[in-house]
Amino acid sequence: MSELKQRRNAPRGYVDNTSAKHSHGTSGNAARADRIAWWRIVIRITLTLLALNICLSFLITETPFWGHKSKWTNWRNYIPRKQRVFTQLELAQYDGTDPEKPILLAIEGDVYDVTLGSGFYGPGSSYHLFAGRDASRAFGTNCLSRKDHLTHDTRGLSEGELAGIRGWHRLFDNHQQYVKVGVVNLDPIDPNSPIPPPCDGAKAKPI
Ligand code: HEM
């Protein structure tokens, strides 16, 4: 029997819920489809604006994010990297003297690949003395002319000098071109060994 006939034959007071259910289901589906369509539009507009923004930034600053550079604007930092634990002797092999190996430096025990900064850290460059070791002390005291400051021994440093080390550490951590590759197991400092004397009088400039 057709639906119309069924309805005609139905007793008085009978309420047919099926059509209400159907229309409710249909309008529910339509509402959901509408929402999805809106989200699609929003996502499309956002992606288009993002692409336009990157293109404009490239045209004006030749960088994708208006000159902003940090580790997050470096695609290499999105590749999960196995972190290695170095001994100090192992780290020393990465001071740039072997062109086949990357240039690594450590600060406060964290090891960074600074090969892209070879102009700073390669052999013969001003900051080569930082390569292949943890010379945190020199980062704090700015004393690049004394070998005894090229150490991870930070005993006796002032708050300002320690803050200086942390500042350099942040620079390496957020640097657009450098990546953290592991940590170095630093030899414990003998508490009875003499604290390196301050740099006063010695050249604070790079050697
Ligand atoms: C007369 C003193 C100094 C001058 C004129 C000087 C100058 C410079 C210049 C021009 C740069 C290049 C900046 C760049 O292009 O991004 C640089 C980088 C650097 N300086 Fe100095 N500097 C001096 C002292 C020092 C000292 C005492 C330290 C030790 C803490 C130091 C550590 C560094 C490091 C680690 C970099 C490389 C940063 C990187 O890898 O991006 N400098 N310096």
From TrEMBL:
One of its GO terms (cellular component) is endomembrane system. Keywords: Membrane, Transmembrane, Transmembrane helix. InterPro entries: Cyt_B5-like_heme/steroid-bd, Cyt_B5-like_heme/steroid_sf, MAPR/NEUFC/NENF-like. This is Cytochrome b5 heme-binding domain-containing protein. Residues 86-185 form the Cytochrome b5 heme-binding domain. Residues 16-28 have a biased composition (Polar residues). The chain crosses the membrane at residues 41-60. Belongs to the cytochrome b5 family. MAPR subfamily. Residues 1-28 are annotated as: Disordered. GO terms for molecular function: heme binding. SMART domains: Cyt-b5.
